Amino acid sequence: MKKVLAVILLLALTFVAFAHVKNVIYFIGDGMGFNHLYLASLLEGKTLNMMKTPYTGIVKTFSANTWVTDSAAAGTALATGFKTNNGMIGMLPNQESVPTIIEVAKAYGMKTGIVVTCRITHATPASFYGHVPDRDMENELAEQLITNATVDIIMGGGYRNFLPMSVKGSSRKDEKDLIALAKEKGYAYVTKKSELANIDSDKVLALFSSSHMAAASDRSGEQPMLYEMVEKALELLSKDGEPFFLMVEGSQIDWEAHGNDPYGVWKEVAEFDKAVGVALQFAKTNPDTLIVITADHETGGLSTSTGTYMLEVEMLKKFKMNTDTFLAKFNIEEKEKFISAVKEIYSIDMTEAEYEWLLNIKKTAKSYYDLPNNFGKYISSKALVGWTTFDHTGNPVPIFAFGPGAEYFTGWFDNTDIPRLIARLMGCPLTYPIYKEPVITGPVLY
Q1: Is 249 annotated as a binding residue?
Q2: Over the stretch 103-114, which tens digit does the pLDDT of each residue have?
Q3: Which first-to-last residue range defines the signal peptide (predicted)?
Q4: 212 annotated binding-site participant
Q5: Is 417 assigned to a binding site?
Q6: Of 11, 147, 292, 443, which sits 20 to 30 A from 113 (CA to CA)?
Q7: Per the residue annotation, which of 63, 71, 217, 238 is the catalytic one?
Q8: 66 labelled binding-site residue
Q9: Is 131 annotated for ligand binding?
Q10: Catalytic residue at 381?
């Protein structure tokens, strides 16, 4: 890896003259398709920040071994410029590691940051610093993150992967204390929003929950919102005027779409877009900042119709709770309370037959997700929102860009094109050694 980075750094020097971007803020909406954005825009009653760009493109998302990618393969493509198999992070299908855009930016002397609302060791953020054959190797990814120290500002969830096994709540299988190691390497460690506000350090490890952070519609107290983390990250990364690269993920759009939950999707997209707004404000006073917004894949096959030439926008606006929270609060086996709550929270008059159908799903469930998924699809159907799956699709996703170089992000792209173009604009091309350019097997490319 060190040899590869050295070659890249050498190659980068020959391209400096072409660079005109100082800072890059790279937004990834996990699972966010065109219709997720459009639905959120309708429910917000306004054009979203990211939809205001004059530069829009379309991105293909397939992985090396299937037309429908997972987040690990998609994250790797968006972070390294190379395809890999589903489930793999920072590696080619033959398990050869490839450098990430953050590793290249760091080698080139830039400051770096990652801000997410999932575990920091989850697939997308891990793709920007990690190299493992299986995305579930989150303890190994946590160790790589701290040991290699290529990311200066780290914010998200998941401290369970950093605590020694003997500490309550740890998910590690050893006694490695990665929090202590991070402190040795100069990181300020915080776990609360109130602590983050007072931090003025060049290196920060901020982990606000044991696992993933709460959903946007539920988050409160000492867990910051995404836009608040972005504000702080930009403050810390820009304070001395040095160039930086920041990746921001709206991690939970995907999960709400997996559950076919239109309210959850709305609130997650809205939170993500508010963070984009913070970046756009930063760019007004830092015009040499490039902002790129895209997604790793589409989730759910969301449709703004069920074939009736109608969409109940006003009904959707009255929804008050995401389905996971609703099902945690109201027990489906308490019939009268449950039916009454459906009316109160979603303005839906649930029939006896509909209730019995959902109750039977719980009784015969083979997975924890069977009931919340079908409940999400049920409330969607009442508002005439359609879904084709509870999983990912192969649908293309949008890309938006603001700032210097934004004009290059129009037309059709493969997801591997995005980090290569960003790196080239930064003046540090994401170039694998030419003599070892790999041939990726998998779907027939066109």
Answers
A1: yes
A2: 999 999 999 999
A3: 1-19
A4: no
A5: no
A6: 11
A7: 71
A8: no
A9: no
A10: no
* Model confidence pLDDT, tens digit, residues 120-150: 999 999 999 999 999 999 999 999 999 999 9
- Write down the domain spans for the chain: 2-302+390-436, 320-382
Is the full-model pTM beyond 0.85?
Answer: yes
Q: 3-state SS of the chain?
A: CHHHHHHHHHHHHCCHHHCCCCEEEEEEECCCCHHHHHHHHHHHCCCCHHHHCCEEEEEECCCCCCCCCCHHHHHHHHHHCCCCCCCCECECCCCCECCCHHHHHHHCCCEEEEEEEEECCCHHHHCCCCCECCCCCHHHHHHHHHHHCCCCEEEEECHHHCCCCCCCCCCCCCCCCHHHHHHHCCCEEECCHHHHCCCCCCCEEEECCCCCCCCCCCCCCCCCCHHHHHHHHHHHHHCCCCCEEEEEEECCHHHHHHCCCHHHHHHHHHHHHHHHHHHHHHHHHCCCEEEEEEECCEECCCECCCCCCCCCHHHHHCCCCCHHHHHHHCCCCCHHHHHHHHHHHHCCCCCHHHHHHHHHHHHCCCCCCHHHHHHHHHHHHHCCCECCCCCEECCCEEEEEECCCHHHCCEEEECCHHHHHHHHHHCCCCCCCHHHCCCCCCCCCC
323 is in an annotated binding site: no
pLDDT for 20 equals: 79
Confidence of residue 1 (pLDDT cuts 50, 70, 90): low
Query: Is 20 part of any known ligand binding site?
Result: no
Domain 2-302+390-436 has CATH 3.40.720.10: yes
- pLDDT grade, residue 421 (50/70/90)? very high
pLDDT at 258 over 60: yes
pLDDT 10s digits, 188-217 = 999 999 999 999 999 999 999 999 999 999
